[in-house]
Amino acid sequence: MSMIDTLIEALQVLPGVGPKSAQRMALHLLLRERQAGIQLSQALQAAMDNVRQCNLCRNLTEHPVCGLCRDNRRDEGLLCVVESPADILAIEQAGGYRGYYFVLNGRLSPLDGIGPEQLGMDQLVDRVAALQPAELILATNPTVEGEATAHYIGQLVAGQVAKISRIAHGVPLGGEIEYTDGGTLTHALQGRRDLDMHS
Amino acid sequence: MSMIDTLIEALQVLPGVGPKSAQRMALHLLLRERQAGIQLSQALQAAMDNVRQCNLCRNLTEHPVCGLCRDNRRDEGLLCVVESPADILAIEQAGGYRGYYFVLNGRLSPLDGIGPEQLGMDQLVDRVAALQPAELILATNPTVEGEATAHYIGQLVAGQVAKISRIAHGVPLGGEIEYTDGGTLTHALQGRRDLDMHS
Fold first, then answer.
1. What is the pLDDT of residues A103-134, one digit of tens each?
2. N or C: which end of chain A has fewer CB within 10 A?
3. A136: distance to nearest CA of chain B, Å?
4. Three-state SS across B156-187?
5. ipTM associated with this complex
6. DSSP 8-state code for residue A61
7. Distance between CA atoms of B121 and B157, rounded to whole angstroms?
C-alpha cells in the first residue's frame, strides 16, 4: 500500500470521515498544507503519548492534575459531575460556571458492563471529601442512563454534601414549544419558576 | 496552550473541519482510539516527509516514478492529462481507462500567476515525446480555465500526437434533463451520437 493510501485509510478513524473526505483531506495536506500536516502529526503524537486522566477530576490532561483543578481562583463551593470532557468544554464555553468538575467518562450501563468502578465513583467520593463543596451539581445527560447515574451518585454522597442538585430540563433557548417533545414539556412545566418582576 | 487545545487547533487545517468537529475528533481519538491516533500521526509524518511528484507524470508518490507510470501492463497508446491527483483517483475508481496519466497540478490562471511553467508543460512535452501515445486525452475540468488549459495543451503538442481528444460534456448519468443547465444541454446536443441499434 502506498503512503498516500495508508494516510487515506488512517484518516478514516476520525468520526464523520469516510473514504471520500479522507481522500480530500490527504490530497489537501499533500498539495497545499505540508507544514500544517507535519504540525498535525506532531500534535497527534504528543497528545496520544502524554494526555491521561487528571488525578483529581478524571478530565483529559497532559499534567498529573489538570489546569481546571489547579486553578485556585475557581469557586470551591461547587463541584459539577459530567459524563465527558466534551461536556466540560461546552460548559466552559458557555461561561457562567466557575466551580470545579468531575468527569465520569461514561454513564452507568450494566448491559455494557459499565458499573461504578469504571466511572471512578471511589475517586468522586474522595474528591468530595477533600473539596467539601457546598453543592454538588449532577450534569449527566437527560437520558435514562444519565438519570440513573445521577440518582446513583445522589445516593452515594448523600451524607457528605449539604446540597445536591440536578441541571434543569426544559425548552431550549430558541426552541419552539409547539415542536418540543412531551417529556421535555412535562419537565419544563414541573420545573417552572416564579417570574422575577423586579429585575 | 494544552496539548489537547494544540491538537484541536491543528485538526482545523483539514478541509471542512471547524472548531466543533475538531474538538469531537480530538476527544474521540483520546478517549477511544489512541492506537489509531498514533497510526494516523505516523501515516501523516511519513506522507508529508516522503511524498513528492512523480518524475514522469507529476502525480503524488513516495517513489521517484509512481506506481501507475511503472505499471507496464497499461496501454501505452493513451495519455490522459488531468488537473489534479484527485482526478486520477476518480478515473481509476470508475475503471475502464487503462492508459497513462499526466497531472498538471493546477490549471492556467494568469491572474493567479499560474502559467505553463507552473503546470509542468515542459515535462508534458518530454513525456509525450518519450511515450509517443497514439492519443492524448485532455481531461481538464469543464470550466473556463480548464477549457483554456486544454486548448493551450492542444496547440502545444499538435505536431507530436496524431489524435488529441477532449472528454465529453453532457448530461450526467442519473441526471435529469429538466434540471440540467443550458451550457451542459448545449454540449449534450452538439455532442450527440448515433444510436447503436445492433448492440
1. 999 999 989 999 999 999 999 999 999 999 99
2. C
3. 25
4. HCCCCCCEEEECCCCCCCCCCHHHCCHHHHHH
5. 0.83
6. E
7. 10
Query: Which parts of chain B register pLDDT below 70?
Result: 199
- A-B CB pairs within 8 A amount to 161
- What is the C-alpha to C-alpha distance for residues B107 and B132, in angstroms, rounded to an integer? 23
Chain centre to alpha carbon of residue A74: 18
Find the angle CA(A113)-CA(B35)-CA(A90) to the nearest 5 degrees.
Answer: 70
The residues, ordered by sequence, that sit 6+ positions from B16 with a Cβ below 8 Å of its Cβ are A21, A24
d(Cα B194, Cα A109) in Å, to the nearest integer? 66
- The full set of domains in chain A, from first to last, is 3-50 (1.10.8.420), 71-190 (3.40.1360.10)
Helix (H) or strand (E) holding B99: strand B99-103
What does pTM read for this prediction?
A: 0.82
Annotate B125-149 with b (16+ C-beta within 10 A) or e (fewer): eebbeebebeebbbbbbbeebbbeb
**How close is the nearest chain B Cα to the Cα of A197, in Å?**
38
The cell for A49 is 503519548
Q: Does A11 sit within 8 Å of B26, measured CB to CB? A: no
Measured between beta carbons, which residues in chain A are less than 8 angstroms from residue B45? 38, 41-42, 45
- CB–CB contact B44 A28 (8 Å): no
